[in-house]
Amino acid sequence: MLQEDLYYPHPLVQDILWASLHKVVEPILKCWPGKRLREKALLTTIQHIHYEDDNTRYVCIGPVNKVLNMLCCWVEDPNSEAFKLHLPRIYDYLWLAEDGMKMQGYNGSQLWDTAFAVQAILSSSLIEEYGPTLKKAHEYIKNSQVLEDCPDDLSYWYRHISKGAWPFSTADHGWPISDCTAEGLKAALLLSKTPPEIVGEPLNAKRLYDAVNVILSLQVISAPVHKNAVNY
């Protein structure tokens, strides 16, 4: 490991534990009955990996599991279609800085930035001046909304509804995020009150209702002492 990547040295106890797991525990798990349990666990794991890959168009939720998912697909079959589809999406996370290649913590903040930029412009007296910008932003907000839930039984895949939500970045990413959905909805509503000849046609009302439905479904009722408080 490069010293630049070693932010905190491993304690000796940690190194001993990892070595023990690798040298002792893993060989034991490869024997019966651990072998059968291990095979079942690996099968379930790779199924969940493929499910996320398919439903995020191989972007995955973030860079860490993007790399892990890609490695698992390579271990499963280095010539598989899944591994090949992973490769071009690496560039969603990479960028060049003055001191070399970096991997960002997300595939971007496109929707988040767009929603706030729209709200800022609409709160000013520069709406007509920034009309072309608002029209493009409006199109992006429309195009980045999630239009369908993930397929199959959501509870089996530990998923929540996502139809109507907005992600942090792009439609390809697709993970529903509460505050991004709220800000995307707010921007869409503000744009719907602006002349369409400036910003384009408003978002379909059904899609607005879908966004509200997602936000309501994500509400967390606080402890009884704060029973009237609701967070999203």
UniProtKB/TrEMBL annotation:
This is Cycloartenol synthase-like. GO terms for molecular function: oxidosqualene cyclase activity. GO terms for cellular component: lipid droplet. PANTHER family: LANOSTEROL SYNTHASE, TERPENE CYCLASE/MUTASE FAMILY MEMBER. Belongs to the terpene cyclase/mutase family. One of its GO terms (biological process) is triterpenoid biosynthetic process. It comes from Nelumbo nucifera (Sacred lotus). Signal peptide: none annotated. InterPro entries: Squalene_cyclase, Terpenoid_cyclase/PrenylTrfase.
